[in-house]
Specification:
Radius of gyration: 29 Å
Order of helices and strands: HHEHEEEHHEEHEEEEHEEEHEEEEH
CATH topology of the largest domain: Protein Transport Mog1p, Chain A
CATH architecture of the largest domain: 3-Layer(aba) Sandwich
Largest sheet: 10 strands, antiparallel
Number of helices: 9
CATH class of the largest domain: Alpha Beta
Oligomer: single chain
Amino acid sequence: MARTHGKHTVSPAERAAGIALLAALAGFLILLAVLDKHYDFEAVMHAPPAPAEGADAPAGAGPAAEEMLPAAFEALGWTRDGDIEVYPEDRLFEKIDGADERYKLYGNRRLLCGSYTGGDDGRGRLDVFLYEMRTPLAALGIFGRERSVGAAVVDGLGDAAYAVHGAAFFRKGAWYVQVKGFDEDAAAASEPIARAIAAALPSGEAPDPAFALLPAEERVRGSERYEPKDSVLGTDFLTQVFSADYGTGGKAVTLFLARCGKEAEARRAAYAEYLKRQGKVIEEGVLEGASVTLMDLDGSYDGFFAEGEILAGVAGAADQAALRRLLAALVRSVRAPGAPAAGSGSD
């Protein structure tokens, strides 16, 4: 009989289990010693951005990071200060916390960042942000979303560009680029550096045939916008909204079309109810062969119609004459023989 005398008797099974546990622990310690690694919580939580050479974009996505953000723009006298930072989509918040969700909405692959120093005394500084979007349409969308109203258009830079406060912004193909200067020297260099970067970027195909349904006459260059979820008109039920600004001087008028698929008439009715809460109906009639609704929204004027699988209209006209003229042009463009199909909506 086993003696206890206040002590636990170790059975053969318990002894075997203990030996197995000790062996496993010893093996784990040996493995750690061989690999010379340990778990560092702070290192994992605050890891630096991935190095450029270790974060290649998918095949065919574009040139290498060093081609777009070289060690120096020698002809311009600016030198990169530090390594290129690379942030894949799931780590955008580390660089642009608060704005990352907007880029994800449009479809972002990665962000490349580089800081440069130069100028007369070598103390000027500017930052470059290159957003690689998933498609040219996504680049157009985020460019339009962030474009400053009334910003000066820059000719011959990418597919569309503008300058504001000593910084240059442009899109080309699937890329949206920001070059931001922080002093007088940098402000003067922002556009030349933007042009050097644009020269290294591949061109992209036309963003979307839907833009061809918006009239070309009176369109403000570079004002095209695409919204996966509407923020142009302020609705919460329209998606895939294509728009552009029209007119010169004063408040720009917006012409738009939204892909609605088989829900075009239902979305037209919903849009009518939405506007009626803000103003009153002036007229419901026929214009250029389309059934249109004209609205007075407390001094500004809107009009809209449904055609096939799209809802289209004018928002923010200064008077009824401008509303009718622009709405008629939009109807003609949408209904023109041979006009490109807008495509179906996908909610």
